[in-house]
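Data card: per-record layout.
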Amino acid sequence: MKRALALAAPLLLAQAEPRLVPDVSQREVRIIYSFTGAELLAFGAIVYPDGRIPGERVDVAVVLKGPVRPIVLREKQQIVGIWMNAESARFRSAPSYYAVASSRPLAELVDARTAAIYELGLDNLQLSPGGGARPEEGRRMEAGLVELMRAQGLYVEDGRGVEITGNVLYRARIPIPAKVPVGDYTAETFLIRNGRVIAGAVKEVRVDKAGFERFVADAAERYSFAYGLAAVALSLLLGWAASAAFRRRGA
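The structure for this 251-residue chain is written out next.
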């Protein structure tokens, strides 16, 4: 009997923790020719098991992550007065898009170990660099990749991006830039209390092309040879048209 109670104790403690009921403003983001960017609203509620809202503060962090892809980063250096690719690093599985919004700066919410486990923050991304580089060189290239993606609006960190109302409702606005990669995204929500992640939930978001952009992307993928020929023919046609127009003006 005592053994049964001991085994059941962790389950009872787990049930005593609050849980998240998340949602997003749109499950699919469509990219068309006039797409200049969008804003995804991640929102939801914190459900407490006994219905009583605790007096102590809880915090929320929301992470929107795009599909992971191999990325090659090349560093240019000036050699003999000419800018050339001098160093390169390959990352096997870097997220193509990453945004984190939190109710407070992450350094105030969790310690470094917890942040690393849940990949909370740009400094804690697991980029999986290729082997061969010295540790200090690898860290420098990782920092360079993060800075480059940040400059393009593809890596975002907002330490005041989550609003919590009455310790129950939360919402976060996450920017989606115009050149966001297509694919399946995950919106992960973490409930944090006293430096510990006590609940988590995931929603899926699809970013895809629509209209003429979808047709071009599908054609390039399914009929790559014909697409290449068409692209070359179109370039030649446009070049000929431009040359003819200049000749007429000169005449």
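Known properties of this structure: The two ends are 103 Å apart (CA to CA). The longest strand covers residues 82-95.

See the next section for split statistics.
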